[in-house]
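To assess whether ligand presence alters the predicted conformation, the chain was also submitted together with adenosine-5'-triphosphate. Input:
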Amino acid sequence: MATLEIHDLHVSVEAENGAREILKGVDLTVKQGETHAIMGPNGSGKSTLAYSLAGHPKYTITGGTVTLDGEDVLEMSVDERARAGVFLAMQYPVEVPGVSVSNFLRTSATAVRGEAPKLRTWVKEVKEAMARLQMDPAFAERNVNEGFSGGEKKRHEILQLELLKPKIAILDETDSGLDVDALRIVSEGVNRVRESGEVGTLLITHYTRILRYIKPDFVHVFANGRIAESGGAELADQLEAEGYDKYVKGGATA
Ligand SMILES: Nc1ncnc2c1ncn2[C@@H]1O[C@H](COP(=O)(O)OP(=O)(O)OP(=O)(O)O)[C@@H](O)[C@H]1O
Ligand SMILES: [Mg+2]
């Protein structure tokens, strides 16, 4: 049973006027098979948490621990984290000119699985995964995210999720910018991966609409760089109705 444990995590970024603390003591445990939704106002540090877990060099860990099955994640390089089973679908996926989607996917799968997937089964695997996400096969030959629409980028993130089968999937606003059909298709992709029972999912979102498709076991309110409240799925409805006012009062977000 894979377990991601975040304890009292503090993270800073280098700003013009010195280091600025963004995460101020995050505590969270995500177990394989569980889905945790994280909701919170703009600028509260949700993406910072996602990037810090994935190992983005811009973020400095100033305190706390992150372990995956007891192993120190913070000691691992970005690719070691990926091999250990941590996956991040980015809020703003980056363009990688000169690298085709098919090359990118095969290289990633080779790195994560520890051996190159057999070409014949691999081609079939990718084709089927793309078909399930209703992606035109022509995307395989395009450069990663180059000229992709917002929704196409998000589908490509979920394609990676399906092919790489991580232990912990962090999905940073995978739902934003999707039309109703794409939201359903992308959610179904996430649910296929969840149904294996082998992935712990951290779903960062602003909207309860994705939670109609992907039922969270826990909902956390993220405010001012930490989790301000945790509850069940009903908490999301309460947030939709009442907003974040009561969580941000008394602490500046800017
Ligand atoms: N390099 C940086 N320099 C200064 N401030 C930064 C830097 N990187 C992030 N921040 C600040 O950290 C705060 C948290 O940003 P983050 O992207 O984690 O928020 P978020 O909760 O994901 O917001 P959103 O809902 O808009 O995606 C913001 O106020 C942001 O401006
Ligand atoms: Mg964000």
